[in-house]
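Saturday, quiet lab. Running sequence design on the structure tokens for the scaffold JK sent over.
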């Protein structure tokens, strides 16, 4: 499942579903949680259920309400027919197991939002036990500061404060420790295209393989950031070719620089994403 870009769409706004598909996002996340008030949850579920009956050009995920909420059972009845399920406020493998138990034996792959409670941060290394149930691991920078009474997760320039830099890094390493894709969180300023472009590029540089979006206008920049360009592909191919030509070498020179086993691993990983 290719997940460069994942676009949120409120579940109670069905008139936006087709427009979201036209954005070029690899996946839509039809939201039944935060963007839908409690009085409209039923309406949203009906709209999402109707949409899931069709054929789509992108993967369609459903974000259910938290596993301990009063809404989750009704959400799951709809979400089990999606291509994937986003689980908010996940707290390690136990949360994933609890959701799978509700979804049933043919549960779609799950994408936990793994940093929205203080306890969740201490369980980011826990997902390897349920890696076969996951299509990735992602994080958020909004619910956690609210949960601990922080004023904000961001500096005035839009960068993260130190606690949330740490949480981002732990999510990245937790995903890779489990062997699943690491998905970067949203860029909240819809009009700041330059900021989005730079943020997505940093995510790709650091080891994330995709990113969530909150508006269709963000999708193109995200897809570009997480799609290897021709120069990167050519370099990866050259690294692999160099080692294939010298199968007994542990280290080689390429374009005047040393390359060794980690560079070969990076090259293979990049080409696997093309």
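Result came back. Writing it out in full:
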């Amino acid at each position: 499942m290719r997940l460069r870009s994942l676009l949120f769409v409120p579940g109670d706004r069905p008139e936006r579903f087709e427009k979201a598909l036209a954005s070029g996002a690899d996946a839509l996340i039809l939201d039944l949680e935060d963007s839908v008030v409690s009085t409209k949850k039923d309406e949203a579920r009906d709209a999402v259920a109707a949409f899931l009956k069709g054929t789509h050009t992108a993967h369609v995920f459903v974000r259910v309400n938290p596993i301990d909420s009063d809404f989750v059972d009704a959400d799951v009845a709809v979400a089990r027919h999606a291509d994937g399920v986003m689980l908010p406020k996940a707290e390690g493998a136990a949360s994933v197991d609890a959701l799978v138990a509700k979804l049933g034996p043919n549960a779609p792959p799950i994408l936990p939002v793994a940093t929205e409670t203080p306890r969740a941060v201490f369980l980011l290394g826990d997902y390897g036990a349920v890696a076969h149930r996951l299509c990735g691991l992602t994080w958020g920078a909004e619910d956690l500061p609210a949960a601990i009474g922080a004023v904000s997760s961001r500096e005035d320039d839009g960068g993260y404060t130190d606690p949330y830099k740490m949480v981002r890094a732990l999510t990245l390493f937790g995903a890779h420790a489990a062997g699943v894709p690491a998905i970067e969180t949203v860029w909240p300023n819809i009009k700041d295209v330059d900021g989005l472009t730079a943020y997505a590029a940093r995510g790709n540089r650091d080891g994330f393989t995709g990113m969530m979006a909150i508006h269709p206008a963000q999708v193109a920049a995200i897809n570009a950031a997480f799609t290897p360009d021709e120069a990167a592909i050519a370099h990866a191919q050259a690294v692999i070719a160099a080692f294939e030509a010298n199968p007994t070498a542990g280290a080689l020179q390429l374009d005047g620089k040393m390359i060794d086993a980690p560079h070969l691993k990076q090259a293979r990983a990049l080409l696997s994403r093309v």
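Notes for JK: The two ends are 12 Å apart (CA to CA). The chain has a mean pLDDT of 94. Ask whether to fix the surface positions before the next round.
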